[in-house]
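On clarity, I found the account of how folds are encoded harder to follow than it need be. An entry of this sort, consisting of the sequence and the corresponding backbone structure tokens, reads as follows:
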Amino acid sequence: MTKLILTVLLSFITIMFASCDRDRAVSCEQDQQHTWSMRYEWDRAWDYNLGCQERAENDFDRCLTSEDVSRDCAEEVNLENQWCVYWFARQINKVPLRVCGVSVYNIIGDPSTQDWRLEPNDNDDDGDGVSNYWEFYLGMNPCSQYSYGCDGGQDGTNDFDADGVLDRDDSAPRCNTGYDPGDGISDCV
């Protein structure tokens, strides 16, 4: 009788763990899909931002050649650039806000009054040791500890810049972009 109970109990535990592994695999796959979706949206936002900045510079050049001397060309281009940055931050925040309710940038103040500023969100809402802002900057998912799927390891245990310092402990995890001996010393200038 005891043997039968142990066999049933072991079967139940095995099924339970298999179910957990299957659920975790599905969750990791969804996290990875969200990561790719975010990266796609972020690349689009970055491209648009570069175009917006370029248009602002072209408008500045046209303003300088204008015959209207009452225009403040520097102020006009500054205002356009601020709107480019504001739009960019809103687009960057859009996907993680939709997926898990977190932001990459904190938009403080009212952009319509020009009394505003943009700050990186240094919170680590997914608990992997890497801030929301750095996860965005490194192309990770601020909504998940496993941006690259379950096999990619937890985000904070990766070493993006190959300097021998884990991303969760690195104050500039994108700093060493070239060859690095892995000595843990920043080679950034």
About this structure: The CA atoms of residues 98 and 143 lie 10 Å apart. The two ends are 72 Å apart (CA to CA). Residues 2-64 form the longest helix (63 residues). The chain is about 50% helix and 5% strand.
